Amino acid sequence: MSETVTLEALPGPIELDLDHTALIIIDMQRDFLLPGGFGEALGNDVAQLQRVVEPLAALLDAARAAGMLVIHTREGHLPDLSDCPPAKLHRGAPSKRIGDPGAFGRILIRGEYGHDIVDELAPLDTEVVIDKPGKGAFYATELSKVLADNQITQLLVTGVTTEVCVHTTTREANDRGFECVVVSDCVGSYFPGFQRVGLEMIAAQGGIFGWTAPGAAIIPLLKERAPAEPAV
Ligand code: TIU
Protein backbone atom coordinates (compact mmCIF):
# COMPACT_ATOMS: atom_id res chain seq x y z
CA MET A 1 0.00 0.00 0.00
CA SER A 2 1.52 3.34 -0.98
CA GLU A 3 1.65 6.36 1.27
CA THR A 4 -1.17 8.86 1.09
CA VAL A 5 -1.32 12.62 1.55
CA THR A 6 -4.25 14.51 2.99
CA LEU A 7 -5.92 17.04 0.69
CA GLU A 8 -8.17 19.61 2.32
CA ALA A 9 -11.23 19.53 0.12
CA LEU A 10 -15.02 19.82 0.16
CA PRO A 11 -17.03 18.25 1.66
CA GLY A 12 -14.03 17.16 3.80
CA PRO A 13 -10.43 15.96 3.60
CA ILE A 14 -9.56 13.16 1.19
CA GLU A 15 -6.55 10.84 1.38
CA LEU A 16 -4.82 10.94 -2.00
CA ASP A 17 -2.53 8.17 -3.11
CA LEU A 18 -0.39 10.09 -5.58
CA ASP A 19 1.10 6.89 -7.03
CA HIS A 20 -2.37 5.96 -8.22
CA THR A 21 -3.71 9.40 -9.12
CA ALA A 22 -3.92 10.90 -12.62
CA LEU A 23 -4.55 14.45 -13.80
CA ILE A 24 -7.26 14.57 -16.47
CA ILE A 25 -7.67 17.74 -18.52
CA ILE A 26 -11.00 17.86 -20.31
CA ASP A 27 -11.43 19.54 -23.71
CA MET A 28 -9.23 22.65 -23.35
CA GLN A 29 -9.69 23.09 -27.11
CA ARG A 30 -9.43 26.20 -29.25
CA ASP A 31 -13.00 25.73 -30.51
CA PHE A 32 -14.25 26.22 -26.94
CA LEU A 33 -11.75 28.80 -25.67
CA LEU A 34 -10.59 31.17 -28.39
CA PRO A 35 -12.30 34.42 -29.34
CA GLY A 36 -13.91 33.92 -32.76
CA GLY A 37 -14.25 30.18 -32.23
CA PHE A 38 -17.25 27.88 -32.00
CA GLY A 39 -17.98 28.65 -28.33
CA GLU A 40 -18.06 32.39 -28.92
CA ALA A 41 -20.04 31.98 -32.16
CA LEU A 42 -22.76 30.33 -30.07
CA GLY A 43 -22.98 33.53 -28.02
CA ASN A 44 -20.84 32.39 -25.11
CA ASP A 45 -18.41 34.53 -23.10
CA VAL A 46 -15.09 32.76 -23.68
CA ALA A 47 -13.35 34.92 -21.02
CA GLN A 48 -15.12 32.72 -18.48
CA LEU A 49 -13.16 29.75 -19.80
CA GLN A 50 -9.87 31.55 -20.42
CA ARG A 51 -9.58 32.24 -16.69
CA VAL A 52 -8.89 28.54 -16.26
CA VAL A 53 -5.74 28.46 -18.42
CA GLU A 54 -3.27 30.03 -15.99
CA PRO A 55 -4.16 28.04 -12.84
CA LEU A 56 -4.42 24.86 -14.90
CA ALA A 57 -0.99 25.46 -16.48
CA ALA A 58 0.44 25.76 -12.95
CA LEU A 59 -1.23 22.51 -11.86
CA LEU A 60 -0.06 20.77 -15.05
CA ASP A 61 3.54 21.89 -14.38
CA ALA A 62 3.37 20.51 -10.84
CA ALA A 63 1.82 17.22 -12.00
CA ARG A 64 4.51 16.81 -14.66
CA ALA A 65 7.28 17.56 -12.14
CA ALA A 66 5.77 14.98 -9.78
CA GLY A 67 5.76 12.35 -12.54
CA MET A 68 1.97 12.01 -12.46
CA LEU A 69 0.08 10.45 -15.36
CA VAL A 70 -1.47 13.28 -17.42
CA ILE A 71 -4.45 12.62 -19.69
CA HIS A 72 -5.84 15.21 -22.11
CA THR A 73 -9.20 14.82 -23.81
CA ARG A 74 -10.65 16.43 -26.92
CA GLU A 75 -14.31 16.40 -27.91
CA GLY A 76 -14.73 15.90 -31.63
CA HIS A 77 -15.68 13.76 -34.55
CA LEU A 78 -14.33 11.99 -37.60
CA PRO A 79 -14.35 14.08 -40.82
CA ASP A 80 -17.19 11.93 -42.24
CA LEU A 81 -19.19 12.47 -39.00
CA SER A 82 -19.89 8.72 -38.81
CA ASP A 83 -19.30 8.84 -35.04
CA CYS A 84 -21.69 11.75 -34.45
CA PRO A 85 -25.26 10.70 -33.65
CA PRO A 86 -27.89 12.64 -35.64
CA ALA A 87 -29.36 13.88 -32.34
CA LYS A 88 -26.07 15.66 -31.63
CA LEU A 89 -25.38 16.73 -35.22
CA HIS A 90 -28.73 18.45 -35.70
CA ARG A 91 -28.52 20.40 -32.45
CA GLY A 92 -27.90 24.15 -32.50
CA ALA A 93 -28.15 26.92 -35.06
CA PRO A 94 -27.76 26.01 -38.76
CA SER A 95 -24.28 26.90 -40.13
CA LYS A 96 -22.86 26.61 -36.59
CA ARG A 97 -23.17 22.89 -36.27
CA ILE A 98 -20.52 20.23 -35.82
CA GLY A 99 -18.69 19.76 -39.12
CA ASP A 100 -19.61 23.18 -40.50
CA PRO A 101 -16.78 25.54 -41.47
CA GLY A 102 -15.76 27.73 -38.53
CA ALA A 103 -13.06 30.33 -37.85
CA PHE A 104 -10.55 27.59 -37.00
CA GLY A 105 -11.52 24.89 -39.51
CA ARG A 106 -14.49 22.53 -39.49
CA ILE A 107 -16.15 22.77 -36.08
CA LEU A 108 -15.12 20.00 -33.65
CA ILE A 109 -13.61 17.82 -36.38
CA ARG A 110 -10.50 15.83 -35.56
CA GLY A 111 -7.39 17.16 -37.24
CA GLU A 112 -8.71 20.73 -37.54
CA TYR A 113 -6.86 23.59 -35.81
CA GLY A 114 -9.85 24.49 -33.66
CA HIS A 115 -10.27 20.93 -32.43
CA ASP A 116 -6.81 20.89 -30.88
CA ILE A 117 -5.74 21.97 -27.41
CA VAL A 118 -4.71 25.56 -26.65
CA ASP A 119 -0.97 26.21 -26.91
CA GLU A 120 -0.49 26.92 -23.18
CA LEU A 121 -1.64 23.38 -22.29
CA ALA A 122 -0.29 21.49 -25.31
CA PRO A 123 0.23 17.81 -24.46
CA LEU A 124 3.77 16.43 -24.34
CA ASP A 125 4.53 13.52 -26.67
CA THR A 126 4.63 11.25 -23.61
CA GLU A 127 1.13 12.20 -22.43
CA VAL A 128 -2.14 10.47 -23.25
CA VAL A 129 -4.63 12.22 -25.55
CA ILE A 130 -8.13 10.73 -25.65
CA ASP A 131 -10.39 11.70 -28.56
CA LYS A 132 -13.98 11.39 -27.43
CA PRO A 133 -17.20 11.71 -29.44
CA GLY A 134 -19.36 12.39 -26.39
CA LYS A 135 -19.46 14.65 -23.39
CA GLY A 136 -18.11 11.96 -21.06
CA ALA A 137 -14.51 10.80 -21.52
CA PHE A 138 -15.35 7.12 -20.90
CA TYR A 139 -18.00 6.73 -23.62
CA ALA A 140 -16.56 5.09 -26.77
CA THR A 141 -12.92 5.70 -25.76
CA GLU A 142 -9.93 3.79 -24.41
CA LEU A 143 -9.90 5.74 -21.12
CA SER A 144 -10.92 2.78 -18.90
CA LYS A 145 -8.05 0.73 -20.29
CA VAL A 146 -5.52 3.56 -19.85
CA LEU A 147 -6.54 3.98 -16.21
CA ALA A 148 -6.48 0.22 -15.53
CA ASP A 149 -3.10 -0.21 -17.24
CA ASN A 150 -1.68 2.54 -15.02
CA GLN A 151 -3.39 1.29 -11.82
CA ILE A 152 -5.16 4.61 -11.34
CA THR A 153 -7.83 4.81 -8.64
CA GLN A 154 -8.14 8.57 -8.10
CA LEU A 155 -8.51 11.45 -10.55
CA LEU A 156 -7.83 15.17 -10.44
CA VAL A 157 -10.44 16.44 -12.88
CA THR A 158 -9.95 19.76 -14.71
CA GLY A 159 -11.00 21.49 -17.94
CA VAL A 160 -14.21 22.69 -19.56
CA THR A 161 -17.05 23.03 -19.23
CA THR A 162 -17.82 22.41 -15.58
CA GLU A 163 -21.47 21.45 -15.95
CA VAL A 164 -21.15 19.58 -19.25
CA CYS A 165 -18.02 17.52 -20.02
CA VAL A 166 -16.41 17.85 -16.57
CA HIS A 167 -19.61 16.75 -14.81
CA THR A 168 -20.35 13.95 -17.28
CA THR A 169 -16.82 12.56 -17.00
CA THR A 170 -16.77 12.86 -13.20
CA ARG A 171 -20.11 11.08 -12.91
CA GLU A 172 -18.93 8.34 -15.28
CA ALA A 173 -15.70 7.95 -13.27
CA ASN A 174 -17.54 7.89 -9.94
CA ASP A 175 -19.85 5.13 -11.19
CA ARG A 176 -16.78 3.15 -12.24
CA GLY A 177 -15.30 3.36 -8.72
CA PHE A 178 -12.81 6.21 -9.12
CA GLU A 179 -12.52 8.91 -6.47
CA CYS A 180 -12.60 12.28 -8.21
CA VAL A 181 -11.35 15.65 -7.01
CA VAL A 182 -12.65 18.40 -9.29
CA VAL A 183 -10.17 21.28 -9.13
CA SER A 184 -12.34 24.32 -8.57
CA ASP A 185 -10.22 27.03 -10.24
CA CYS A 186 -9.09 24.68 -13.03
CA VAL A 187 -12.59 24.05 -14.38
CA GLY A 188 -14.70 26.64 -16.17
CA SER A 189 -18.18 27.33 -17.43
CA TYR A 190 -19.48 30.01 -19.81
CA PHE A 191 -22.10 30.68 -17.13
CA PRO A 192 -20.97 31.91 -13.68
CA GLY A 193 -24.11 30.51 -12.06
CA PHE A 194 -23.48 27.04 -13.52
CA GLN A 195 -19.84 27.21 -12.37
CA ARG A 196 -20.85 27.88 -8.77
CA VAL A 197 -23.73 25.44 -8.64
CA GLY A 198 -21.85 22.86 -10.72
CA LEU A 199 -19.10 22.75 -8.10
CA GLU A 200 -21.59 22.72 -5.24
CA MET A 201 -23.45 19.75 -6.77
CA ILE A 202 -20.32 17.57 -6.74
CA ALA A 203 -19.53 17.99 -3.04
CA ALA A 204 -23.12 18.19 -1.78
CA GLN A 205 -24.70 15.32 0.16
CA GLY A 206 -21.34 14.32 1.66
CA GLY A 207 -19.60 14.28 -1.72
CA ILE A 208 -22.31 12.64 -3.80
CA PHE A 209 -19.97 12.10 -6.75
CA GLY A 210 -16.69 13.66 -5.71
CA TRP A 211 -14.69 16.30 -3.89
CA THR A 212 -13.68 19.84 -4.84
CA ALA A 213 -10.48 21.68 -3.96
CA PRO A 214 -8.53 24.59 -5.45
CA GLY A 215 -5.24 24.07 -7.27
CA ALA A 216 -3.46 25.96 -4.49
CA ALA A 217 -4.31 23.14 -2.08
CA ILE A 218 -3.05 20.44 -4.46
CA ILE A 219 0.13 21.97 -5.90
CA PRO A 220 2.10 21.92 -2.59
CA LEU A 221 1.29 18.21 -2.17
CA LEU A 222 2.66 17.55 -5.66
CA LYS A 223 5.75 19.68 -5.02
CA GLU A 224 6.56 17.70 -1.85
CA ARG A 225 6.60 14.62 -4.02
CA ALA A 226 8.63 15.98 -6.93
CA PRO A 227 12.30 14.99 -6.96
CA ALA A 228 14.47 17.84 -5.65
CA GLU A 229 16.20 20.01 -8.27
CA PRO A 230 19.84 18.96 -8.51
CA ALA A 231 22.18 21.37 -6.66
CA VAL A 232 24.30 23.55 -8.95
N1 TIU B 1 -16.34 20.05 -23.36
C1 TIU B 1 -17.61 20.40 -23.20
O1 TIU B 1 -18.05 20.73 -22.11
N2 TIU B 1 -18.38 20.44 -24.34
C2 TIU B 1 -19.49 21.19 -24.46
O2 TIU B 1 -20.22 21.03 -25.42
N3 TIU B 1 -19.70 22.11 -23.50
C3 TIU B 1 -20.61 23.12 -23.48
O3 TIU B 1 -20.75 23.76 -22.47
N4 TIU B 1 -21.32 23.38 -24.60
Automatic annotation (TrEMBL):
Single GO molecular function: hydrolase activity
Domain of life: Bacteria
Coiled-coil regions, chain positions: none
Record-linked InterPro entries: Isochorismatase-like_dom, Isochorismatase-like_hydrls, Isochorismatase-like_sf
Isochorismatase-like domain boundaries: 21-208
Keywords: Hydrolase
UniProt key word Chloroplast: no
Name used for this protein in its record: Isochorismatase hydrolase
